[in-house]
Design goal:
Blueprint lengths: L1 H43 L4 E5 L2 E5 L18 H13 L3 E7 L7 H21 L7 E5 L12 H7 L2 E7 L6
Parallel strand pairs: 3-4
Antiparallel strand pairs: 1-2, 2-5, 3-5
Helix pairs in contact: 1-2
């Protein structure tokens, strides 16, 4: 009887451990992958602010680096930087890239929504043209929502005109 109980106890512990371990292993694998991605991005694009929180990476380029004021066309001086960014992202293809375009609060809401969407789309198209798969890129125009600085000053408005990149682990990717 003791032997049967011991076997049942061992079996119960073993099945309990097996059930938890795949999730823990996946979480650890995701964390290590995102940590490597973060370090690669931080090293590749020193001009940008790269931060990581809970396996989510945020990349923010300095204001006025990507676009002229009131325009959605990428500045020629930005393209080499975005190519370096794309080359780093190519190495870490188990990620999705969310591109959020923002504006300051000058101009009308409809204009800002369209401008921010065009900025996000143009940035996404540039990354696609530089070998980032379309299925990994998602773009949103956020207009003047979520300012990161005071829109009452020229410096604040400049900081609010931005494109943010959010890099997420894509659990559906197999490799």
């Amino acid at each position: 009887m003791k032997r049967i109980l011991a076997i049942a106890l061992i079996f119960g512990l073993f099945t309990g451990l097996v059930a938890c371990n795949p999730q823990k292993r996946l979480a650890r694998k995701r964390h290590v992958y995102m940590e490597k991605t973060y370090l690669e991005l931080k090293d590749s694009i020193k001009e940008a602010q790269v931060s990581i929180l809970n396996d989510t990476i945020k990349v923010l380029f300095p204001e006025n680096l990507l676009f002229p004021v009131g325009k959605a066309e990428l500045l020629p001086t930005t393209k080499p930087l975005l190519i370096r960014f794309a080359n780093a992202l190519i190495k870490y293809d188990k990620t999705s890239i969310l591109i959020n375009g923002y504006t300051d609060n000058t101009g009308g809401q409809a204009l800002n929504e369209q401008l921010s969407a065009n900025r996000a789309n143009n940035t996404g198209n540039f990354l696609k043209a530089n070998r980032i798969k379309e299925s990994r890129i998602f773009t949103w125009g956020r207009g003047s929502r979520n300012p990161i600085a005071d829109n009452n000053t020229a410096d604040g408005r400049r900081k609010n005109r931005r494109v943010e990149f959010i890099i997420l682990y894509n659990a559906g990717t197999k490799k």
